[in-house]
Amino acid sequence: MSNKLTKAQSLAIEYITNSAKARKAEAQQIIEEVLYMSDTARARFNEASRQIYAHAKVALHFHPDRPITATKTVADDLLAEGIYKNQFQTRISNGGLTAYPGGARDEWEKAIFGGAYHQASTAASERPKYGALELLGSYDGPAPRFGSCYVVLHSAVSKRCTFTYLDSSQNPKEKGTFAEFDDVLAALWKDVFFHNEALGRKELTPELLLEQLTNHLPLSRAAWLNGKPSRNLDYYIEAQVHGDIVLQDDAEALVADPSFQGTATGQVLEQLCSKYGLDLYWHRGLELHVDEVPSNFRGPAMPELAKRVAQSGKINAHCIGLAAASLMQSPELWKEYGSYEQVVQQLKYMWHILVRFGEPKDTIFEVEIE
After folding, report:
1. pLDDT at residue 364 is higher than 50
2. InterPro entries, from UniProt (predicted)?
3. Contacts of 33 (CB under 8 A, 6+ apart)
4. Which of 282, 312, 340 is the C-terminal boundary of a domain?
5. Which of 43, 240, 271, 324 is the most buried (most CB within 10 A)?
6. What is the per-residue pLDDT across 166-180, written as a single tens digit (0 to 9) for each?
7. 277 with 293, same domain?
């Protein structure tokens, strides 16, 4: 495993660990109250927690066909380098484009990690990579907002991750590491008990969460792939991975959108799995007919843009990616939809619509083990 950490990375993990320790007593009190009110035995909670530490893995969402340059996509770079890079290196993002000195991401990393990454001589490559912790087993991953495909890391990598309950851009108070995870667990159980939902899953009770963590989390990945899409855009346990992510050492699987099967991007994904020893899974995907694209979710421009982006009357991950590539190569062809930056954002919104409203592709999933 690629577990050697720099001084900045070690300080970042230490800072989050100490923050979680400071809130530990309050977190444990919340957990005890929820267990009492829900009539949940402490032994069952402890067993569910053990399953998290043993089986929960971090997934890194990405869009494989997004262009980094005019001739290289994210998938091309992964194949060539075998390293999963952070946004300060790639200069692209499926969220906000603010990964530069003085940008919003730079500022919130400074706040969250206590300035660990703002010491003199800290390189851009040392910055954390962002993913989400898999707990509920949706086929489209724990944070599909950030990409149609995701790399699954070995469980050992979780030991050098920090976690926030919800997105770190909000600087949530609930943070932790696997060594000090009570604050994150307390937030999860509180949401489940008081709101009957968590991590984008509605009608989730303490009993159902126990069942999921104890009996379903340990199942093989193939068992998850015939489930329902999460439709989850905003609710996840964000993971910040500190240290290098070397695919051959740190990743075990790639779960890919089936719209890329038979495409140039799909071939690159197959090659990188073969090259770096990853299991390749094709999940059920998402499709949406252009007539079903709403005007009141990401703005009134979306239905017309969908007609431009669609293939055979439907939008999917692949055709949105083709539009993104066309925009980079020939921005003048898209000027009727706004500036380059505006169209980039609108294509992100199109993906959000697909996550929320799309339906599984009308095929049975396939699994390929390399």
Report:
1. no
2. DUF3626 (IPR022074)
3. none
4. 282
5. 240
6. 999 888 999 999 999
7. no
